[in-house]
Design a protein that fits this description.
Helices cover 34% and strands 29% of the residues. By secondary structure, it is an alpha+beta fold. It has one domain. Strands 1, 2, 3, 4, 5, 6, 7, 8, 9 and 10 form a ten-stranded antiparallel beta sheet that branches. Strand 6 and strand 7 form a beta hairpin. The relative contact order is 0.18.
């Protein structure tokens, strides 16, 4: 029998989709107020992999990734997704969103994204929310899975996520050094 342990903290990442940088700034302000300082904000990237969102949000659309300094317990992802849905709803106009927020987390070996939609490869994590492993990290690179969305298969996204992962791994190393020095001095 395996022993039950606390999970390793993970890096909160919130990819955002909107028509204007102003929508990103507004959302980022609300997210920082809730989750603390961002330690990574990507450049705005053109989003053209699908026209799925254009009827609701217009075109052209942009993508921005925001990652947060404070690591989180992966078990809090459902609550984070519910909060992001509240933001989307509050800023909607006649049922049309001005921004789409896709919270997830980056761990050493994967990117996990939360969703409200069930599917064969998604796991229910509570509060009406599902999660999927969107990308694996192996051999120094991100790997797509059969269900990975086309934009998450792209080199620019992988480069951004590699930068965020480097920040995450540095934070973990620093945390471990701090923990071991505390144990030695205690």
């Amino acid at each position: 029998m395996g022993s039950i342990r606390q999970p390793v903290p993970v890096k909160l990442v919130i990819p955002m989709l909107a028509g204007t940088p102003a929508a990103f700034e507004r959302a980022q302000t609300a997210l920082v107020a809730r989750f603390g300082p961002a330690d990574y904000v990507s450049n705005d990237l053109p989003f053209g992999e699908t026209d799925y969102y254009e009827g609701e949000m217009g075109a052209p659309l942009l993508r921005r990734f925001v990652a947060f300094e404070t690591l989180i317990d992966p078990g809090t992802l459902a609550g984070i997704k519910r909060f992001s849905n509240e933001i989307e709803e509050a800023w909607s106009d006649e049922g049309r969103r001005s921004i789409n927020l896709d919270p997830g987390y980056l761990a050493a070996a994967k990117l996990v994204l939360a969703t409200t939609k069930d599917y064969a490869h998604r796991i229910y994590i509570g509060q009406g929310i599902y999660a999927e492993v969107t990308l694996l990290y192996r051999g120094g690179t991100f790997e797509a899975l059969p269900w990975t969305y086309p934009d998450y298969r792209s080199a620019p996204y992988h480069a951004i996520l590699a930068e965020i992962r480097a920040l995450y791994m540095a934070t973990l190393r620093a945390s471990r050094r701090s923990d071991s020095s505390t144990r030695r001095s205690g």
